[in-house]
Design a protein that fits this description.
The protein is mostly helical. The chain has one domain. Helix content is about 35%, strand content about 10%. The protein contains ten helices and seven strands. The strands form three sheets. It has a three-stranded mixed β-sheet with strand order 2-3-7, with no helix packed on it. Strands 1-4 form a two-stranded antiparallel ribbon. The protein is globular and about 55 Å long.
């Protein structure tokens, strides 16, 4: 569920071979799964750790295979992060080159349902299953966060409040909608349409454009300052901020071609 995902193109099966997953790794290379509520046990056991996850927040541009389009997310999703880079930026962090999935026996629900030659079970799961959000994840980790023994109970207790405060101060949906009104949105690619908000076809001009640019710069600075405070005063590891607060506003704007000015 991200704008960088590639469409499935399963490798051809050998003649006479029955249809079954060969664990070729193609789906892993093209992007890790988003998590379902049923995956919370993987967080508690430490199979999935918070530093390997990223929150895709409501309003982010994401691939919707049911509509063959890029469109803003209606609700947040927790996704296994990728390493970045140009070749496979969203490659699942648990994929091991030449080996395959490093957690195959305890893989997330979407991975278990996915079979590239028959996506029906995955489509049913996505349509009827419950997607995991940050509050559900933090609720099951209220007694301790595997891999982060230095996070004491008092810090863990305030994490949901930090999520709420950050959402109030920095709205991804409002920020990217404003960027869209300036004419900055994902480029079409891989045969996907881009579903923009109605009425955004004509970019803002004049003083309205200047005001919008100023607001985007302020959103990026507010977001950066909030993250800095979490680390320096809250004692929260920077490695879990992508899960806790999502991707930075600066990175999200850069994806659509905007680079807010530095400074405070």
């Amino acid at each position: 569920m991200s704008m960088q995902h590639q469409p499935f193109s399963p490798p051809p099966a050998d003649p006479g071979e029955s249809a079954s997953c060969r664990r070729c790794g193609m789906c892993c290379l093209r992007g890790g799964p988003t998590l379902m509520v049923s995956d919370t046990a993987l967080l508690v056991s430490g199979t999935l750790t918070l530093d390997a996850l990223v929150c895709l927040r409501a309003g982010e541009w994401a691939r919707d295979d049911s509509r063959n389009a890029l469109r803003p997310l209606e609700g947040e999703r927790i996704k296994i992060a990728g390493p970045g880079g140009r070749v496979h930026p969203w490659r699942c962090l648990y994929y091991r080159e030449g080996v395959g999935c490093g957690i195959y026996k305890q893989r997330p629900a979407q991975c278990e349902a996915l079979f590239c030659m028959d996506t029906g079970p995955l489509e049913v799961l996505l349509a009827k299953g419950r997607h995991m959000g940050r509050f559900a994840a933090l609720n099951v980790l209220s007694g301790g966060v595997p891999g982060f023994s230095n996070l004491n109970a008092s810090v863990i207790a305030i994490l949901p409040d930090l999520v709420s405060a950050h959402e109030e101060q920095v709205s991804v949906r409002e920020t990217l909608e404003l960027a869209d009104r300036l004419g900055f949105y994902p480029a079409q690619g891989h045969g996907l349409a881009v579903e923009r908000t109605a009425g955004h076809e004509t970019p803002l001009e004049g003083s309205e454009r200047e005001q919008a640019v100023a607001e985007l710069g302020e959103a990026a600075r507010t977001d950066a300052a909030f993250r800095e405070l979490c680390v320096e005063r809250g004692g929260i590891p920077a490695t879990i901020l992508p899960f806790l607060l999502g991707r930075s506003i600066r990175d999200l704007l850069a994806e659509v071609g905007l680079k807010p000015a530095q400074g405070r």
